Amino acid sequence: MEKTPLLTTSGKPIRCKAAICRKSGEALVIEEIEVAPPKAYEVRIKILCTSLCHTDVTFWKMDPPRGVFPRIFGHESAGVVESVGQYVEEVKEGDRVVPVFLANCQECVDCKSEKSNMCTAFPFIQEPGMPRDRTSRFTDSNGEVVHNFFCGSTFVEYTVVDITQVVKITPEIAPDKACLLSCGVSTGLGAAWKVANVHKGSSVAIFGLGAVGLGVAQGAKLRGASKIIGVDLNPEKFEIGKKFGVTDFINPKDDEEKPINEVIREMTDGGADFCFECIGFASVMNDAFNSCRCGWGKTVILGMEMHGAPLCVNPYELAWGKSITGSLFGGIKPKSDIPSLAKSYLDKELYLDEIITHEVGFQDINKAFDLLIQGKSLRCIIWMDT
What we know:
Layout: E1 14-20, E2 29-35, E3 42-51, H1 54-60, E4 76-84, E5 96-99, H2 109-112, E6 138-139, E7 145-146, E8 158-162, E9 166-168, H3 175-180, H4 184-195, E10 203-207, H5 211-222, E11 227-231, H6 236-244, E12 248-250, H7 260-267, E13 274-277, H8 282-291, E14 298-301, H9 315-319, E15 323-326, H10 334-346, E16 356-361, H11 365-373, E17 379-383
Parallel strand pairs: 10-11, 10-13, 11-12, 13-14, 14-15, 16-17
Antiparallel strand pairs: 1-2, 2-6, 3-4, 3-8, 3-17, 4-5, 5-9, 6-7
């Protein structure tokens, strides 16, 4: 008996559901859209699960012209390759992958260097559009363009991402844990290990104990830091932070008369060896810099200041040996470092399960926004197929 040929979507548009934001700050609406097939050097991915990051919320609130709508947000996820475009050899249909917001072509000067995780061939951009032709692969039911986010939206059942932003990952790690490695947790771990190079016996101060800050704490603990101070307005974060290595906790509201930098300098006999800003406010960046030790103290800025406030530091303190540096994605080189982090988790060296505080189905994606905005969640996993 002749077999019926299997239906395939390769090379064809796919109709699926997406959570679209049509106006800044408005609830996302589940709509049916069309996702075009991948072009050359592109990969179409079936999203298994995604999660909500503070960066998504920042851009969701952003008014035009910086805010671009309609748009599909999301940049933390895990999925399966549905089809690939011409010239893609690195992954194939059925491979488990995580899309990332930072390109890693592995061929440019920066990608080949250990000094940076930037990619000069495909630099990070905040504007919508695919990296090679600046167009979208999404259209709504009226045939109008829906913009993507960070070159690869994930609040959608299928997405298209450039191969430079696709990381093949072992199927041994569960999708929800792999999802966490595509942004927040990796950013924190990388900042402690690759950017700051935290060493044994050092003191660390972390401003903001979200997923990124807890990643920093975990990285510092694994490097043998003796004192890890968590600074957060939510007192519940201390109990959570203990699991990841936080030894001391400061709530700035507890003693508003004494500057936070004075408190930290007293706790560390002159200032922390390493300070990490994980929130995205210039004022907190200043607090972090003022809290680090003269002579060798290093401040790492992980939060992205979106309010236009300038960062002002005392040049004399720079002359006295303090330094400040920025970091995107914690210095992580996606294609080599993320698989290594996945192995560390499988080897029970890293904690990921504790970062997941809530789970919802795709239809309830707006609940994830409510939880994060109210400070009730670290990471809420959004499952595409409930």
